[in-house]
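Quarterly update from the structural biology core.
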Amino acid sequence: MTSKLTAKDYKADFCLPEKGCYLLNHSVGRPLKSAQQAFYDGFFSPWQNQSTEPWQQWLSSIETFQSALGQLFNHAPENFCPQANLSSALCKLVMSHPRLTKPSAKLLMSEQDFPSMGFALRHALPECEIVFIPKELDMTCLDVWNSHLSQDLDLVFISQVYSNSGQQAPVNTIVAQAKQQGILTLLDVAQSAGLIPLDLTETAADFMIGSSVKWLCSGPGAAYLWVNPKHIVDCKPKDVGWFSHDNPFEFDIHDFRYHQSALRFWGGTPSVAPFILAAHSINYANQLPKDLVRQHNLRLLTMLHKAFGEQLVSPQEANKCSGTAILQFGDAQNAVLKALKAAHIGVDTRSLGIRVSPHIYNDEDDIVHLIDVINKAC
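Predicted structure, tokenized:
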């Protein structure tokens, strides 16, 4: 990748709409223009250009995906395992650990967590007790977390950011506090990976799940789980297959041995295509100057904060806000949404208001245009 000086210069690298601007990065990130060629080279080319099966080349792409994640989160690649989605990853994780599958297990999560996570936990661990932090509480506040952490908990589920409120949890401090009380920690970085840095060596959580579809601009299907290596031996996944085996190509139906790494969570014949795309996009993200995406995001969010301070219902502080500004215009809300749609400005709404999430390929002109359209609608 060529050296570039400003965030605005990266816009040319991405597939963007011809009209208007795209600010839905909390939902799906835009693909790189180079992704199509990378996908052909990684998936179709080995299939079409040789007479042997392409598995060797395909599996090397999975290793590239793991390595890209290792660089992104500063941890060993073998501690990451590809997954189809977060719900599946979460079920596999919690059903594998003896502390979480005991009848008296007790878990803590927030009512602000993505509902799919609650669904998965309830059905994966039907005998456990799930305690919810009420949705109206401020998840950026350490006092809120401390008032709910207790030594009788077995696991605390922590979203690094919350998509519907735009709040960012104080992850490092929560993990440290939980560790002092002997509570396992599981991080969800689906809404933050590629935007808000997370160093797993520094944070030292027990488990993590995430995806690549949002700020990592990789499309759906390339999720992952991470297991702190101190827990690998304790984890005995139930949902296994030949790629969970210590030697997938041993082919002895009477002898199953868990893979020695996080790949014990892999399962049967893996999908490959999503991870080829994701490896390409994550490696692109890894080559960007450190903190560029977040600093650029904060710069554009600040423009929205200044323009609509009274209508802003999400946090403003850098250590408390996600990558999303949430705006509520009351009686003018429908008029604003109609105007934004007419201007081809991509946003969406949830219970609190309009969600706006600028990425590296958005620039000041995009935000100025959005502000202008909203002011005229109001």
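The radius of gyration is 21 Å.
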